[in-house]
Amino acid sequence: MLLNYYATGVGMAVLEGRIAVVTGGAYSLGYAFCEALAAEGADIAIADVRDSADAAAGLREKFGRRALGFKVDVSDEASVAKFASELREALGPVEILVNNAALFAELPALPFHEYPADLWDRVMAVNVRGPFLMAKHLAPMMIEAGRGKIINIGSGTAYKGMPEMLAYVTSKAAILGLTRSLARELGPHGVNVNTLAPGLIESPSVLEHPHNLAPSEKVIRSRAMPRAGVPQDLLGALVFLASPASDFVTAQTLAVDGGSVTL
Ligand SMILES: NC(=O)c1ccc[n+]([C@@H]2O[C@H](COP(=O)([O-])OP(=O)(O)OC[C@H]3O[C@@H](n4cnc5c(N)ncnc54)[C@H](O)[C@@H]3O)[C@@H](O)[C@H]2O)c1
Q: Is-catalytic flag, 5?
């Protein structure tokens, strides 16, 4: 069942008529991002390996925007290239890309010396090659339009490190370099590239895997605001980075974690 993240009618439609792609948007934080963007007036394309037909139908019904689900494996260039052309045909040129898909909640917690090398490669393929491929195939539409917003979902773990999640944390550290370098290449074309770095958030996926991810008392106490984070906590920052309000903000990381990481 899809949850209600962003109340209908509260948006000021700052994204009216924009076309947004959210990878991994069928569920969990990705779906919350879709709701926020749709509430602000954007049309949505969900690109997920999961079936996203229900999520897209929910967005159409709740927000009255165009919303379509596409089956895409972000780590596979042929799949991403096919998505890019189907997207342009179905909705039009994309203006907002949220690189949210990742291998995360389902990953096993393992000491690094036991980490299987092929799982390491898979994490890098989805979490790093995925955002690169999406940018490679979608940014040309933004360059053509002379404007665009790429929001890469990073993680506070890239700043602090985290035991038994070496591949994941390393992949999220790579997102910082990807963001900074892409921002330099795309800035002259009017395209902003930023990282939104959540702290541990009680997303549906995290709550399904509480054995290795639930926020401990120690995690909560490490925050300036000592409480658990929920998906809604990320949405204001996401809308800011997607909207004209951030037109002169690029190559940055916005940490949304109650003041755990201070950049
Ligand atoms: N929840 C947290 O505490 C937290 C904290 C920091 C960062 N993040 C980041 O936020 C994002 C979402 O996290 P979540 O908590 O919703 O977890 P999640 O693991 O459910 O999110 C992953 C989403 O990506 C999709 N996906 C996986 N592989 C894919 C592929 N190859 N192609 C396309 N889609 C694919 C999944 O189907 C799922 O919808 C991730 O990038 C995660 O690293 C989450």
A: no
